[in-house]
Amino acid sequence: MGKISIDRVNEAYYGDLGTDFSNKTRERVNWIVTHVVGKKILDIGCSQGIVSILLGREGKKIDAIDISSESIDYAKKELEKEHASVQETVNFRVANFMTEPFDNDYDTVLLTEVIEHISDPKSFLEKVSQTIKPDGKLIITVPFGINDFIDHKRTYYYSALVEQLKDFFQIEEFTYLGKWTGVICKLKTEETPSYYTEQAVKDLEQAFYQVEREYINRIKSDLEQMNDLKSQLKTKTEENDEVNELKIVNKTLRNTIDEKEDLIRQLQIETVELLNREETALKAALVKQNKIDELNRQISVLEHRYKVIRKSRFGRVQVKYWELKRRLKKIVGRGKK
Q: Phi and psi for 336 in degrees, rounded to 5?
């Protein structure tokens, strides 16, 4: 039997899912490995296989099963990276623990994040008890408290886990690993100890304190980040307001510039028109002046000719003739009156 969801425990162990999660995963995995006893191990719900591989490096014989073919394929690829001696000791396979037979001589059986997925944990744990040697161990880890994954069937604190285990197992150690609980069991004997001791209550309270402290610290951190984001947003908003004001000023200036450019273009047009009129008038004046100059030149020529004629002998006679003609004209005019 195994987990329906795909646990990325190998990736978490090697730090691919973040430093904090990696540290917590390593703490839990190392706690499991250090409490394994004997040589023959059954890893039920082995997921990506990190625990089995670590134990294989120590020469232990591992039967590792999971109902997820995707997880087993991943585990086998990881195993291929290991030394041949490790590959020989670890056997990964897709299997359903509840429907297949298993030996009854395992030194340690591992149920790491498994029973929270089981709808009938009593039948499951009964079969688990039949696979362990009389002096063997059962190592369990489960999420501590609320863990709302879709395939989690129940939430485990202290009493729910004790009540399910005590029919078949005797608890030797109950440990809190942050958001996980670790339990080490041996097969039940006729003498059943009391699990509800003062120390058990203190340990539970301390576990609650640590989880709540982590939540509070995370909330404080989230609030600080939110405040930082608000501050950044406020600064950004102020910057945007300044930018908007600058945009308005720029638009006003642009409109003013456009108006000035339109006025300049209009003045240019009027200036060109005025220059054209002045040029036309100047040309007309020049033509008129040329005509006057021509008349003056003709007058000068006539005056020159008159002077020349007057000084000549013929000219003097002609002048006297004109004077006499004018006199006669006057006399005739008086006579008519």
A: -65, -30
Q: Encoding tokens for residue 217?
A: 């610290």
Name the stretches of the chain with pLDDT < 50: 1-5
Quote the pTM value.
0.63
Q: Give the pLDDT score at 4.
A: 42
Residue 152, helix vs strand vs coil: coil
Buried b (16+ CB within 10 A) or exposed e, 264-287: eeeeeeeeeeeeeeeeeeeeeeee
Beta bridge partners of 180: 143, 177
Question: For residues 45 and 111, is the Cβ–Cβ distance under 8 A?
Answer: yes
Tokens of 260: 């000035």
The set of residues, in sequence order, having a beta carbon less than 8 Å from that of 283 and lying 6+ positions away, is: none
SS3 state at 225: helix
Question: Beta partners for 139?
Answer: 110, 184
- Cβ–Cβ < 8 Å for 208, 177: no
Instruction: Look up residue 279 and give its amino acid.
Output: E
DSSP character for 171? E
Q: Residue 145: helix, strand or coil by DSSP?
A: strand
Model confidence pLDDT, tens digit, residues 288-298? 777 777 777 87
Contact 209, 144 (CB under 8 A): no
Q: 164 near 156, Cβ under 8 Å?
A: no
How far is Cα 90 from Cα 87, in angstroms, rounded to an integer?
6
Residue 280 one-letter amino acid? T
**Interatomic CA distance for residues 41 and 180, integer angstroms:** 22
Q: Are 177 and 145 in contact (CB under 8 A)?
A: no
CA atoms within 13 A on the CB side of 25: 18
Cα gap 86→55, rounded to integer Å: 9
Closest listed residue to residue 31, CA positions, set 146, 184, 166, 179: 184
DSSP letter for 117, please. G
Strands (E), 98-168: 106-112, 132-143
Look at the block and give the residue holding tokens 């005797």: 170
